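EI: anyone free to look at a 237-residue chain?
SC: sure, send it
EI:
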Amino acid sequence: MKLLVSVRSVDEALLAAKAGADFIDCKEPHAGALGALPLEILRTVVAAMHERYPGRPISATVGDFAADARDPVLERVAATAACGVDYVKVGVLPGARLLLDALAQSGATVVPVFIADTGLNEALLARACEHDFPALMLDTADKARGSLFDVLDEAALQRFVLRVRAAGKQSGLAGALRRQHLPHLAALAPDFAGFRSAVCDGARTEALSVPRLRELRAALGASQADVPLDQTRSISL
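SC: here you go
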């Protein structure tokens, strides 16, 4: 399980990379769950990462849109991809089947992010698994409701991870995750887990904390070492 850390500036990106983040995820927490960085800032983050940490994967969110806002989303996807990121993350709400189909044909490397607040939409997930997306994620929109584990039970999270894995894609879990969730994440064994709240001093809109990130990095390794290798492979679809 890799560590994805959301950042909103060049300084945060470089600090996160140095502290052990496997993925650098560009996001503006003041602008919502999947708030987008201004494109000019995104370009500077990509340039700095390519110079200092070449090969470290970079993703970026496009902002929060309604399920039927296909054209604005596609425009933002194209603009975000043009900044040089490796992956473009797009929120997926119930009713977004046509958007999913359009994203698959967009020419960008898109990672759909299923918003879990209203439950796991199995039909929409099945549709996404049919397309050539490299990865699928779960996240939450309303951070005040708690973590991903507060809006979905672990059985639903297991179904998501296993369904995505069976489709030959990487799976990611995020949504106000904290250090205490690491044992549960290790048991579920997604390919990556995303953090912002847990690595900030205070709210997720506050500054990134390098000591918190280093502690999380160490705790992540320890939690995975405690899980038997076959534990996450014993659950059938």
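EI: Residues 229-237 have pLDDT under 50 and may be disordered.
SC: 👍
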